Amino acid sequence: MSELTTDSASFRTAEEAVDWIVHLVPFGIRPGLKRMERLMELLGHPERRLKFIHVAGTNGKGSTCTYLSEIIHKCGYDVGLFTSPYIERYSNRIKYNGKDIPDNDLLDMVNLLKPVVDEVAASDYGQPTMFEVSTALAIVYFAKRSFPDYVVWETGLGGRLDSTNIVAPVATVITNVGHDHMEILGDTLAKVAEEKAGIIKNGVPVITAVEQPEAFEVIQRIAKERKSTLYKLDREFSFNLLSSRENEQKFDFTGPFRTVPGVTISLNGYHQNKNAAVALMTIEVLRQYYALIVEDEDLLEGFRAAAWPGRLEIVSEQPRILIDGAHNPEGAETLAQALRDVYPYRKLHFMMGMLSTKNHTGYLRHILPMVNTLILTEPDWHKKESAARLADLARTLLEELGPERAREVEVIVEPEWKKALELLRTRTEKEDLAVVSGTLYLIGDVRSWILNQSDSEKGW
Q: What is the structure's pLDDT at 357?
């Protein structure tokens, strides 16, 4: 199955091909690499032809990936990018030089994959999941059609048993470790770190901004075991924030090989400086280890140009609506910090929708002290958390903050997200700020509805 073949069972349109992949969702998340290994074997190991930069972490993966892909492309290289979940369309997740995989290429590559997937499904390995098929699709598109110099490669969940871990990278990034997917990855930060560190390969350099001692200790141990040089933020490299305002932050970077003054980024929130510093350290590692040619002018232009939809993004000016895909306690803490530092407002009206698997208590503890109105809704997704349950939890936590605070915050339950969004709009006056946050399945729908008056596609 190394070359493209077509038969009467082939899909005729990209829509049909995506529909087939999306209908694999009920097979869920099934950690393990056996099915991916078999898929790659049947395809002739296309993953061995590519240079991957493998990025794991609880938060900040997508932003770090977009910095890396922008910079590498600005430096004159062809670059592939694989991220998840997507914001609006399935094809958003697979990009070449900043552009989504074209429909005709997606169709060709899925028609190449389908018989191989069916063969694995009929064997003892069982049905490959949606994420495994999507991962394989990205690999065959990059290896057989677009041929990038580098692929920026984001993990889906964890790292060790994630389907993206089928690759041998040239550099490994672990942005941070937080309280997310703990029902799968483990109930302590050390266990989560162990899963993330599963992407560390023998002799491959590791760049990280992990802060918690118990999590960093695990990463440091595994890097040492695998003889991988470890670069840690605030140890081997650092940044000094010079200025911060909406849509523009500037910092000086200091690393083991050189300093880079006056790096400017357009993404908002203090955490984006950390993500940018991690990306810059990764670029520096590629310069040193793989002779990546980087002109400072291109480097700085790449940082300025990097944009990541759905993260601290203003999608409407009248009324002012900010969307952010924070969906765990660390994300909520980052969002709360940005709301204090970057966005002025008289009243804060907050709409959120969550999946049932998340730590809602930790999330709400960061948000509740700030809001005037809290609108609880539900994403259009099968693992959604009940808006009523979220409201009960919010009211309990507000009582803990004191009777006065409980009286100040209006809690509204509206399970239908479009109605909830309309409520949010009507309450947000000229000097107020509206925020929509929570699962990216909600953020994708809201973004698509506000900007295009259309629903987003759904998937991981």
A: 76
Instruction: Report the candidate in 85, 142, 126, 103 with the shortest Cα–Cα distance to residue 14.
Output: 103
Peptide bond into 85 cis (omega under 30): yes
- Tell me the HSE value of 247 on the side-chain side, using a 13 A CA sphere: 5
In degrees rounded to 5, what are phi and psi of residue 111? -65, -30
d(CA 159, CA 31): 9
- Give the distance, in angstroms, between the CA of residue 395 and the centroid of all CA atoms in the same chain: 30
Q: Which residue has the tokens 């409407």?
A: 316
- CA dist., res. 331 & res. 418, Å (int): 24
Q: Quick one: 209 exposed, middle or buried, by C-beta within 10 A (0-12, 13-18, 19+)?
A: buried
Concatenated DSSP letters of 61-121: HHHHHHHHHHHHHHTT--EEEE-SS-SS-GGGGEEETTEEPPHHHHHHHHHHHHHHHHHHH
| E strand or H helix at 329 | helix 329-341
pLDDT digits (tens, 9 = 90+) for 102-136: 999 999 999 999 999 999 999 999 999 999 999 99
Q: What is the tens place of the pLDDT at every residue in 4-16?
A: 444 446 899 999 9
Low-confidence ranges of the chain (pLDDT < 70): 1-9, 180-186, 358, 456-460
